Amino acid sequence: MPADYFSTGIFRVGVTQSAATTEIENISCTMGIDGTAQGGPGTTALVSQTGYQTVTVTPAGAIAAGSSIGLNCWQGNGTQDDDVNILLIEFRYTAVQ
Asked: Which of 12, 15, 31, 34 is at 20 to 30 A from 47, Cα to Cα?
């Protein structure tokens, strides 16, 4: 994490889907902090569409300035019927002023 990290860390994930069929797909992410095991997942449902969309995912964990983060993201529901392509992962946070 950058030295100016203060709070409110979220991951924005940009995706497309191969089709828009019956099942609503999810994106799940976990993170490990400073080499620890991955924590609990944050999961967000996608909109059933093939166009580009961005969703916010907030996995469990306490982030601090100077921490290193290991992030793992995947299509999160067990009944996947469309391919989900992860195109972008962006981290947003509140900086020290």
From this structure: 31
